[in-house]
Amino acid sequence: MKRGVSDVADIATIKNLPLAKAINESLRAALESDPKVLIMGEDVGKLGGVFRVTDGLQKDFGERRVVDTPLAESGIVGAAIGLALRGYRPVVEIQFDGFVFPAYDQIVTQLAKMHARSLGKVKLPVVIRIPYGGGIGAVEHHSESPEALFAHVPGLKIVSPSNSSDAYWMMQQAIQSDDPVIFFEPKRRYWDKGEVNTESIPDPLHKARVVREGTDLTLAAYGPMVKLCQEVADAAAEEGRSLEILDLRSVSPLDFDAVQASVEKTRRLVVVHEAPVFFGSGAEIAARITERCFYHLEAPVLRVGGYHAPYPPARLEEEYLPSLDRVLDAVDRALAY
């Protein structure tokens, strides 16, 4: 059967990319389409970033648009705020998750509040990219998941893609947003490949997506844990259990309507994230869904995540992180009610 012209065009726009490369191509597209987009961070230029996410961008767009900065996170974010006030759209890289805290004051005191402080007159279209989470055997301060700290702050949008297509499109949407966006990149998934259609119409930035239909229980996750939940669902299916997987995609705002719709169907919910369970994002989801779905739930909402302890040395991280067995145990407990 011969393909039509439109079929060939569709094939040409679909690429099989690692998640890191999808972000790279998204940044490239943003730099090409808007001269006000800048990229800033430690080693983002000549080196292309420690994970090579910005590889080749400084060579093609120059040192004035892809800027190697000093090792000073507070200064990087502060400069980005000033640039945004002058009409630019800076994309800032924090080299590792644990390095963001010197910039925490700038983010929560200035970046998050300027729009409200100016009664809506000032917009701050700043994207802060943060590779986050464990699973790579790194040293201290390189494997943390601080998303709940930022989600607690009004004025910030918090998102995290789980696959290459979302990484490409969500970065585009984050850069186009007039509000500051914290873009958490699951570093353990940087090398996972997936299809990216650069001509498709993306889902709204903060809309959750059902990535696997099921009837017995909902697994809700985002970023690096979505792939683990798919493995859990595969294992549960061998025992005749049908699990639905909801990729939340956004932590703040959070698509509670999508979670509610799934839970009203399955009547059980397990929330999975790498961050500590204590005061984590799963706690807010559990509380809100208990309020919304009290008469639908047949079991309490359960949470699986990290422990309330500093992130351990690399040789112990597999004991700290959610695993297939830990999530399956939560599934078993929920289904036992």
Largest sheet: 7 strands, mixed
Low-confidence stretches: 1-9
Strand line-up of the largest beta sheet: 3-2-4-5-7-6-12
* Strands, total number: 14
Overall shape: it is globular
Helix and strand element order: HEHEHEHEHHEHEHEEEEHEEHEHEHH
Structural category: alpha/beta
User: What is the share of helical residues?
Assistant: 25-40%
SS strand fraction? 15-25%
What's the Cα radius of gyration?
Answer: 20 Å
Could you explain how this protein is built, in words?
- This protein is of the alpha/beta class and about 325 residues long.
- Helices cover about 35% and strands about 20% of the residues.
- A seven-stranded mixed sheet has the order 3-2-4-5-7-6-12, sandwiched between helices. Strands 9-11-10-13-14 form a five-stranded mixed sheet, with helices on both faces. A two-stranded antiparallel ribbon has the order 1-8.
- Helix 11 links the parallel strand 13 and strand 14.
- The longest helix is centred in the N-terminal third of the chain and has 15 residues.
- The radius of gyration is 20 Å and the shape is globular.
- The N terminus is likely disordered.
Summed up:
It contains 13 helices and 14 strands. Helix 4 packs parallel to helix 5. It has helices at residues 5-13, 19-33, 57-61, 73-85, 104-111, 114-117, 147-151, 164-176, 225-237, 256-266, 281-292, 317-320, 324-335; strands at 14-18, 37-41, 66-68, 89-93, 127-132, 157-159, 181-186, 193-197, 209-212, 217-221, 243-247, 250-252, 269-276, 302-306.
